Please model this.
Amino acid sequence: MARKNRDEPDSWDVAAPEPVICPLCERVIPDDQQDEHHLVPKSKGGKKTVCLHRICHDQIHAIFTDAQLAKKFSTIEAILEDPAVQTFVAWVKSKPPGFSDSAKESRQSSGRGRGRKP
Model:
């Protein structure tokens, strides 16, 4: 039985995939925690998306209504200027990349915006 040659050229070009970085918290996003966020909500005609941690995405929608996202918070930079988001980001940055928790309710009252049901 022949031994496999570990120096075979076809295995040299296999590069590790680039890690996906969350533009909100700047941590690496594990594959099972990646969520696409529409910068302008689909309900308001948005098409462009960015990849976020699921927890970061959930927090954005816990803080802002779709109307607020469409009108004032349609960029990551604008979202990051909000004090509630800044507080969240400061907290979540200390967590490991795969950390998962439910979003903390903020400005939105129950029944407004895009809430996820428990």
